[in-house]
Amino acid sequence: MARKAVSRKRKAPASPGAGSDAQGPQFGWDRSLQKRKRLPPVKRSLVYYLKGREVKLQSEASYSRVLVSHLFVVDVQTSQITKIPILKDREPGGVTQQGCGIHAIELNPSRTLLATGGDNPNSLAIYRLPTLDPVCVGDDGHKDWIFSIAWISDTMAVSGSRDGSMGLWEVTDDVLTKSDAMHNVSRVPVYAHITHKALKDIPKEDTNPDNCKVRALAFNNKNKELGAVSLDGYFHLWKAENTLSKLLSTKLPYCRENVCLAYGNEWSVYAVGSQAHVSFLDPRQPSYNVKSVCSRERGSGIRSVSFYEHIITVGTGQGSLLFYDIRAQRFLEEKLSACYGSKPRLAGENLKLTTGKGWLNHDETWRNYFSDIDFFPNAVYTHCYDSSGTKLFVAGGPLPSGLHGNYAGLWS
Questions:
Q1: E strand or H helix at 152, and its extent?
Q2: What is the C-alpha to C-alpha distance for residues 125 and 152, in angstroms, rounded to an integer?
Q3: CA angle 29, 33, 39 (to 5 degrees)
Q4: How many of the other CB atoms lie within 10 Å of CB of 93?
Q5: Residues 225, 360: Cα–Cα separation, whole Å
Q6: What are the WD repeat spans here (predicted)?
């Protein structure tokens, strides 16, 4: 039985503080295969180096409009933008959900394949790197949008969908070989269509089965375990190798807007972002041992989270980036001296980077509901460090439902 498709955004409200749950791409800008460099011990924190060093592409053409399925590659040295064709299903006429955009981009461990959404937001598209030649489309699994993707090996990826299911896909040597052969004999991009290797529904809470949407995934490569967060306030753990086997499900301490998830390899914990907290889960410990910290930005929600060494970076719906030191168990704070060009802050306040203006479409919705508001912060729907930890890519857009806009910045 087909599941009811419910909008991922709140309805256009009288108050512009309502939010959406889009998750943007996680795109690595440094494509080198070198091992990650550790920060020199003389640096207290990489974020003090990043602060005040935002680089933005200035023209409106530099931004791809959200909620439309476009895929671009941006050369951050030259600002050249290349549009990549999105991949279609076997039967493109069956696509009925238009205008929801791409919610995830992930590179495989060797950085030779890229997984993202297709023309149909329910389908998984695979491209080869660095050429971005199309490889295949997985188009027979999910019945609703793909919200998250996680590679569990160089050739296998898991997709999490709004229909409450997780799909396991394998890009076999045969698929890669046939894709190369087709490219050699055709001047038009040709790609294969693959079938899921496994398709599993996450457990549903009896009291709220329609809100059992898979919102975020994170993979623990050491234990071959895949963490998943659902919008009904649960964390699920699966064994992920050649198939998906459920290990446990646990209720999260904060159950509203659980929309992002990351795994810290050095700390063996998952970080879950909710409406106002980051919760740290160790699957080896009982659920009552879950530690949570408040972001101090209530109401806007935590929209992205990541680990880099001992620093957890938190992106909020108010366009802020906060930095939590897991060793000291506190957020990094401002110093007395502010960086040049930044707004002075009191010592003791959370250290914060803030997104810029971005681009906003002044369409009919904006004119009818929001034209009297001067500025909308761009929620940080995704962020990603390069391998050196000295460059931080940030992307997002406005929170209020109905608004179309976007922001992309590279801090270095």
A1: none
A2: 16
A3: 75
A4: 7
A5: 40
A6: 139-179
E strand or H helix at 293, and its extent? strand 291-294
Give the span between the Cα atoms of 259 and 257, in whole angstroms: 6
What is the C-alpha separation between 351 and 336, in angstroms, rounded?
A: 11
Count the neighbouring beta carbons within 10 Å of the beta carbon of residue 316.
27
Tens digits of residue pLDDT in 31-79: 333 344 444 333 333 333 344 444 444 333 332 333 456 888 888 788 8
pLDDT > 50? residue 122: yes
Give the count of beta carbons closer than 10 Å to the beta carbon of residue 2. 7
Q: Which two tokens stand for residue 151?
A: 């590679």
Query: Confidence class of residue 97 from pLDDT cuts 50, 70 and 90?
Result: low
Nearest Cα to Cα of residue 227 among 284, 172, 181, 185: 284
| Count of Cβ atoms closer than 10 Å to residue 169 Cβ | 24
Polymer length in residues for the chain: 412
Q: Which residues of 114-142 are buried (b: 16+ CB within 10 A; e: fewer)?
A: bbbbbbbbbbbbbbbeeeebbbbbbbebb
Any long-range contacts for 241-245 (C-beta under 8 Å, 24+ apart)?
Answer: 241/152, 242/197, 243/168, 243/197, 243/198, 244/158, 244/166, 244/168, 244/198, 244/200
Q: What CA–CA distance (Å, rounded) separates 405 from 359? A: 5
Q: Which two tokens stand for residue 201?
A: 């529904």
Predicted local confidence at residue 94, as pLDDT: 54
pLDDT at 347: 56
